[in-house]
Amino acid sequence: MGLFHCPVGAAYYDDEECIDCGMCYAKTSAERVEASKKIRAYFQAHAARNAVPRKIALCGKGGVGKSTMTALLARALRAEGNRVLVLDTDESNPGLYRLLGLEREPRYLISLRKRDPGAIELDGAWLDREQIALDDIPAEFAAGGNGFRFMMIGKIEDPFQGCACSMANVVKEFMEKLTLGDGEIVVIDMEAGVESFGRGVERFVDTILAVVEPSYESMALAGKIAYMAQGMGIGRIGAVLNKVPTENVRARMAEELGKKGVKVVGTILFDPGLNEAGFEGRPIASEDSAREDIQGIVKSLFE
Ligand SMILES: Nc1ncnc2c1ncn2[C@@H]1O[C@H](COP(=O)(O)OP(=O)(O)OP(=O)(O)O)[C@@H](O)[C@H]1O
Ligand code: SF4
Ligand SMILES: [Mg+2]
């Protein structure tokens, strides 16, 4: 294992950050499993526990409704008087800013970390600070205003552009440094699947919401997400059932997730209005039927 990937951030074996988990020198799969257990136990013992959610990541299988839920949740939190930052960390899908009612994308955060010889010189000093407050983020990187802002990590746009590791690293760095005060919340739209967990991108969030649709794969992945989030020491983990057609399906999904130890925090029914907005790539309407359901989810998160 390369030192670069040390899960606790040690620069080399035996430096002061090293917890001697054994991953560096594991030679067998049994030794690697033992090292993973030590890492898991370490994160669980050292997790920062916030009394209320401040950094909420929406995760789940592709297409389950993470971006839709991000937009709904952000709007509900803003309506309750919070200052909300939405962070788009999906390096593929382009349309979240449209769902949020914005006309233009902000500048990508990755542009501060990528050496692009043709790019204009950008002042990235704010990203190098040890702590970053919402007001430290320049307007060109955070669109919106009036208590609601939107940031994008970046998108893969060209063939042979390279892998998305650098984007994952900048998300982790930004999340670690972002310091939120009372009534300030960041809602993070994650890329589909669990690769980000493998990279430890969610390490600095305090709340994981797995969005789950009525499919075996989606529910299986929610169980895996909960397991991985626990292994990172994240204290608040729940599932939001989405695109649910009937009460019977809701009950079956809740039962299945219960067997996996995943708590359901709310349900959004299949909503033709939401589907239409997604189809047309336009902002979610304020009168959509999910409004009350999402208010219930916010209430349950803050209880
Ligand atoms: N409750 C719902 N009722 C009806 N349609 C929905 C609902 N939630 C989401 N959709 C639709 O499902 C599709 C996928 O939603 P969305 O893009 O939010 O998923 P995602 O998890 O972010 O996908 P990806 O993994 O590709 O990022 C969209 O067309 C959206 O409009
Ligand atoms: S032994 Fe574990 S904690 Fe120490 S440097 Fe290697 S991976 Fe990191
Ligand atoms: Mg999405």
Q: Outline of this structure?
A:
With 303 residues, the protein is α/β, with parallel strands linked by helices. The protein has helices at residues 29-45, 66-79, 96-99, 125-128, 165-177, 195-199, 216-231, 247-259, 272-280, 290-302, and strands spanning 55-59, 83-88, 143-145, 148-152, 184-189, 207-212, 236-244, 264-269.
Characterise the protein shown here.
With 303 residues, the chain is of the alpha/beta class. It has one domain (55-302): Rossmann fold, CATH 3.40.50. It is 36% helix and 15% strand. Helix 7 (216-231) links the parallel strand 6 (207-212) and strand 7 (236-244). The relative contact order is 0.16. The structure holds adenosine-5'-triphosphate (ATP), iron/sulfur cluster and magnesium ion. Adenosine-5'-triphosphate binds next to helix 2, strand 7 and helix 9.
Strand content: 15-25%
Bound chemical compounds: adenosine-5'-triphosphate, iron/sulfur cluster, magnesium ion
CATH topology: Rossmann fold
Cα gyration radius (Å):
19 Å
Major sheet = 8 strands, mixed
Average of pLDDT: 89
- So what's the CATH class? Alpha Beta
**Count of alpha/pi helices:** 10
